[in-house]
Amino acid sequence: MSRRSGILEFAVLGLLRESPMHGYELRKRLNTSLGVFRAFSYGTLYPCLKTLVANGWLIEEAGNSPEDALTAPLTGRRAKIVYRLTAEGKEHFEELLSQTGPDAYEDEHFAARFAFFGQTSRDVRMRVLEGRRSRLEERLEKMRASLARTRERLDDYTLELQRHGMESVEREVRWLNELIESERAGRDLRGPTGGSAQQDTTSGATGGLPRPGDAPGTDTPDDTAT
């Protein structure tokens, strides 16, 4: 399995843990909630869904909304296929959530992992955040060393681009420091409008996360499975 497909499978399982969805809903959620999936097609999503079904982690159910019942016979199209997480799928997703290896610190995988921190226990969140910070600190050290070696050979625009890249990494490190401090302090997690604390369903505690700010993270819709 490629790293990219592994991230997609993780995200699909996580979204379906929240509620069953059909393919169009899943693609919309992946596009809007997880920036790493802003540009991907049904040609990528449906093979992933079929793999998850074959593994026993999802089941397919025919959509049964009143709208489906009325329009499907008229259009000659099948009712929407709804995907539901199985007990085995939930167990597999929870196993994936508990993993804190090096892949969890990489750019795309970290973004997907962070999106599901609300379903992740605090000790795992801490390990992932600290691992990500260490990875970025290593990257920053290499960038600074490279800039020091090549500064005299770079034109002003290339030099400015490298500085911009370093500043982006430095901002994320500062953001991670705030997140780690909040996790250690056990601060309540509040939404952007200052709503009530959100309960951590996996650890029984509330996690305090500052706003991330600027830190990371052409098909025609077809509601039927192929």
Describe it:
By secondary structure, the chain is mainly alpha-helical. It has 2 domains: 3-97, Arc Repressor Mutant, subunit A; 117-217. 57% of the residues lie in helices and 5% in strands. It has helices at residues 3-18, 23-33, 42-54, 66-75, 87-97, 107-115, 122-150, 156-185, and strands at 21-22, 58-62, 81-85. The chain has a 3-stranded antiparallel beta sheet with strand order 1-3-2. The longest helix has 30 residues, at 156-185. It is elongated. The two termini are 22 Å apart.
Structural topology:
Blueprint: H1 3-18, E1 21-22, H2 23-33, H3 42-54, E2 58-62, H4 66-75, E3 81-85, H5 87-97, H6 107-115, H7 122-150, H8 156-185
Antiparallel strand pairs: 1-3, 2-3
Brief digest:
Helix content is 57%, strand content 5%.
Which features does this protein show?
226 residues, mainly alpha, Arc Repressor Mutant, subunit A, three-stranded antiparallel β-sheet, 8 helices
Count up the domains.
2
Count the beta strands: 3
Total DSSP helices: 8
> What is the overall shape?
elongated
Cα Rg: 21 Å
Structural class: mainly alpha
What is the element string, with H for helices and E for strands?
HEHHEHEHHHH
> Kindly state the mean pLDDT as a whole number?
78
Provide the spatial order of strands within the biggest beta sheet. 1-3-2
State which percent range the strand residues make up. Answer: 5-15%
Q: Gap between N and C termini, in Å?
A: 22 Å
Helicity level: 55-70%
What summary fits the major beta sheet?
3 strands, antiparallel
Coiled coil: 126-167
Biased composition (Polar residues): 195-204
Protein name: PadR family transcriptional regulator
Region (Disordered): 183-226
